[in-house]
Each structure stands twice: as C-alpha cells, then as structure tokens.
Design goal:
The chain has one domain. The chain has twelve helices and two strands; from the N terminus they run H-H-H-H-E-H-H-H-H-H-H-H-H-E. The two termini are 34 Å apart.
C-alpha cells in the first residue's frame, strides 16, 4: 500500500523549487510593472479596457529585458540559498555525495555543444513545421518585437542571469530531488518536462524540453550545475547574437543553406556530445577524497 503522506511529500519536494522560482519571478515582475505603470498614467486613464491591456502589453515588451534582469536578480539569491541549504541538509543526514572535479578543459566542449545544440534544435523545429503549425504567422511579429534591440541587456539577462537561475532551479534542485525517488532516466524526463512548463508557449516549451534533456545529461555527467550553465549560457548567447546581428541569415536564406547549417550543426553536436559522454564521468569520493566508496 502506498503511503500517501510520503508520496505527497515527495511531489512537494520536487515541485517546490519550481513553485518558489515562479512566485518570486511573478512578484518581482509585478513590482516592476507597477512602478513602470506609475510612470505612464496615461495608460491607466484609458477609457477602453482592451486598449489599456494592449498598451500595458506593449510596455511590458518594450522593457522586457529590464524586467528579466530584475526578476533574475531577485530569484538568483533565493535559489542559491536553497541549493546551499540542500547541501547542508544532506550533510546533516549523511546522504551528501562529493564528486571528483572534472577536467576544466572539458567545459570548452560543453560550450561548443551549447552553440551547436542551439542551432540543431532550432533546425529540427524549423524543418518539422511545428513553428507554423502551433503558433501561426503572428509569432513571427511577436518574436521580432521581443528580440528588438538592447543587446547588452539581452546578453546579461538571457545569456547569463536567466541561464544561471534556471540551471540552479531545474538541474541543481528539481533534477537532484527527482533522483531520490525515481530512476535517473525518469528523473531526467520529469525535470525536463517541468522545465518546459516554465517556458509558456508551445514552441518555447518544445525547445526547452530538448535543452532540459541535454542540460540534465550534462549535470548527471559532471555532477555540478556549472556544466549545464555553460551549455545553457552558450546556447542563449548564440540565439541573442543571431537575432540581433542575423549573421546566419545569408546562409539559411535558401533550402540548400538551411540543409548545410542543419547538417553541419548536427555533425558538430554529435562529435562533441560523444567526446563528453565518452570522456567525462566523475566518480563519487569518500570522506577522505580517495575516490573509493
């Protein structure tokens, strides 16, 4: 017979980092938007409710990256504290496992994997036609508006802070807790699914699930959030640079160009994925750091 109280505590333990991440983000963004709206009283004075909502949404898009920076800056110390408390709790319970330090040069392979993986996943979504099927033509305009300008804020917010917060939350906490209760494979899938839920739209959710699987595999291989963070940061920075400079547009402007980019990114991705999987697998250390348990 299943102990319902124990099952409930397991589910709560797994989802709690995501819930806290979402709540702190929501509170920070609400405070930011309230302050922003106070600087634009003309929006609040609009007689038509739909016009007010439209103007508010446009304002949120215009200051999207300022809001992302503030939200990430608010969430980061909270999740970092949770990760630290997690370690202290496991030390007190005698369940904490320390691992070998991976070769620092292996993180270069992780960065390359992030760049190739970002291009390859976008290729798969583009080729599959899911982009058009799920979102329609309106998405093209929405994405263009979201990625419009403010490259420094995009690099700092999307490339660095957001990646750090998400990796601490979804790999350092959610995946780590999942592993306590289910097989590692199901923990990887489950944590990636929760990660996809945090990204809202169907297209972002599909992309996030793929990123979650890859980032989770890196976490399991390196046993540190640094590896998935470097992977995630590299992928995000590549996306920011492409959307701002369009340096790939000249290549992917034709079917042949798209095929070359997709095939090239797939080859690079598979090579570096193999290098990491075949060469990196840190071992647990005993209390004396000998590597024997």
């Amino acid at each position: 017979m299943i102990n319902k109280d124990t099952s409930g505590k397991k589910i709560s333990s797994i989802f709690m980092p995501f819930i806290i991440y979402y709540l702190v983000t929501f509170i920070a963004e609400t405070i930011f938007m309230t302050a922003l709206m106070s600087q634009h009283p003309e929006i609040l004075r609009m007689g038509n409710y739909e016009e007010m909502l439209t103007a508010s949404a446009e304002l949120a898009i215009k200051y999207r990256y300022e809001m992302l920076l503030i939200a990430s800056a608010a969430v980061l110390p909270v999740m970092t504290r949770m990760l630290r408390d997690e370690k202290q709790k496991e030390l007190a319970e005698g369940t904490y496992v320390s691992y070998e330090k991976p070769d620092p040069l292996s993180y270069i392979n992780v960065a390359v994997l992030g760049v190739a993986g970002s291009i390859f996943l976008n290729c798969l979504i583009h080729i599959s036609g899911i982009y058009t099927l799920l979102e329609g033509e309106e998405v093209t305009e929405a994405v263009a508006r979201i990625w419009d300008g403010k490259i420094f804020l995009e690099l700092l917010g999307v490339g660095v802070l957001s990646a750090a917060v998400e990796e601490i939350t979804f790999r350092g906490l959610v995946l780590h807790r999942f592993e306590r209760f289910v097989d590692t494979r199901w923990a990887l899938i489950g944590s990636s699914f929760i990660f996809s839920l945090a990204h809202g739209s169907s297209i972002q959710g599909i992309y996030a699930f793929g990123v979650g699987i890859l980032a989770g595999l890196l976490y399991l291989r390196f046993r540190t959030v640094l590896a998935p963070f470097i992977f995630h940061m590299s992928a995000n920075i590549l996306s920011v640079l492409q959307n701002e400079s369009h340096f790939l547009d000249g290549i992917v402007g034709s079917s042949a160009g798209i095929a070359v980019v997709c095939a090239g990114s797939a080859v690079v991705f598979m090579i570096y994925f193999y290098l990491i999987i075949s060469r990196v697998e840190v071992k647990p250390l005993d209390s004396y750091g000998t590597g024997e348990v």
